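Example 3.2
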Amino acid sequence: MKEAKETVIGFWNGWVVEPIVGILNTVRGSPDDSPMVVSKEGLHSDMDSLERMVISLASEKLNYTAEQLEDLSIAVRQGDLTPVLRIYEQDIKSPLSSVVRGSLVRSLLIQIQKTKVDVDLALTGIDRLLQSQQLTFAFVGVAPSLAILYVFGGWFRSTLLGVSGKGRFGGLGRRESTLIAMRRIERLLNNPGAGMSSQPFRIPETPGSDSDAESPRMTPPPLTQGLLLLSVTHLRSYAMECLPARSNLQQAFLEDVEDLEDPSGKLRREDQLRVIDRMWRNYGRLLGWDGDAIGYETGS
């Protein structure tokens, strides 16, 4: 029991709370606050060092004026090292003397510094890409934990809260609306023409039928049929949403609802009234249709 408790606490803290706190910090914070592979200060320092190295070499070997050095500085910022490469091309023609004079070594060092700056720029691009997708990664990390909590919450609600407490079987409001739907169905079946000025249509008796043993079958008016359909649909929706999923209670309730729907058309009005009576007997006290659980006494 202790290990199970520690497992639940560890899951809650490590896989739910901490990722959500990280998401909130990401939303509240700025991109500059997040850790980066290469800092902006380091990139600027490497770029300034490269610029100084190129300007020093150009002023000594090429005798550039102040205006030319300013243009060269802008070109270095844009990644153009053409003057240095020209000096390097001249030095490799006589590498030994260039090594002695020192210009070849300086050209190589400048190119190494340029490679370092290029690597820093590439890493900065990766940093920006990671920052733009940081929220996406955070939500992807917490999604499995939230899915597990959602499934467990649904099971807990349907298994435990669905059979006890004030919120059982959809709560007071849903159970009361189902009670009203049941009463409406029974009233319409007892008086198909209730509220209608037109009389129900009588289906002629089939040859050989026993008119004394059975009452003639009647088709209720269209409005009555529509009200019956709405009420039965309400019962089916209640069973699917509020009764414990895949339970015997839900299956039995849906079977009775299907009898009320009567898709085959074989059940007579008297048979459907017996189905209603069966539902009152079987589910009345369980679903709180007996009056006390709903909050008032129902009339007979």
